[in-house]
Amino acid sequence: MATLAFALIGAGCSEAPPPQKKAPKNLEPLTGRQAFQQMYPSARAWMPDAQPMEIKSIPLESVKAAPGKSGAWQVTFVSAGRRRAKIFTWSAIEAEGNLHQGVFSGPDESWAGPRGQERPFLVQAIKTDSDAAFETARKKSAEYVKKYPDKPLVFIAEYTNRFPNAVWRVVWGESVNSSDYSVFVDASTGEYLEKVH
Fold first, then answer.
1. Distance CA 105, CA 2 (A)
2. Rounded to whole angstroms, how far apart are CA atoms 126 and 165?
């Protein structure tokens, strides 16, 4: 009996330890269109007629962003047929604010339909990516950029009542509300439209 117990203890000690899970490798920051393309298949699986209403960058302190790129993005998709909305996110890392690495979706919400600037745009409307929009905005903002070289940037693609097409809004600051300077760039043509300050 003692021999059997010793054999069982010995067998337990000789087992290999379970393999360690590798920490997920951080993903690189993406442009708005790259992040959108990561989320679009999930949105179409949610609703076949899903269209974007807003694409917005989410700055992350722990992910170094390049011009026109961000460590996280949020897209609000809507379904005109079902009158539903859903927010999808893409993030390079797990982060605060319910951000999960890769693509993640929030709950379904009701949507009253297009009104004002809250209206969806065709996927084809985003021919110009956020990095190109930044370059256009930067060229028109040399004095401001020189004066405030380290200001954070936020990128938003949406319709606005100011212009007939969807636009990129390049915002210098933490948010639209707290910013004193932003530039509108046509999302289809890449042309400079207007400064707001």
1. 57
2. 10
Q: Tell me the per-residue pLDDT of 132-147, one tens digit each, with 9 for 90 and over.
A: 999 999 999 999 999 9
Per-domain boundaries in the chain:
30-196
Q: Of 60, 131, 137, 136, which Cα lies nearest the Cα of 95?
A: 60
CA 93 – CA 77 distance, rounded (Å): 22
- State pTM to two decimals: 0.84
In angstroms, rounded to a whole number, what is the distance separating the alpha carbons of residues 54 and 30? 16
Q: How many CB atoms lie within 10 A of CB 26?
A: 14
Measured between alpha carbons, how far is 116 from 41 in angstroms, rounded to an integer? 27
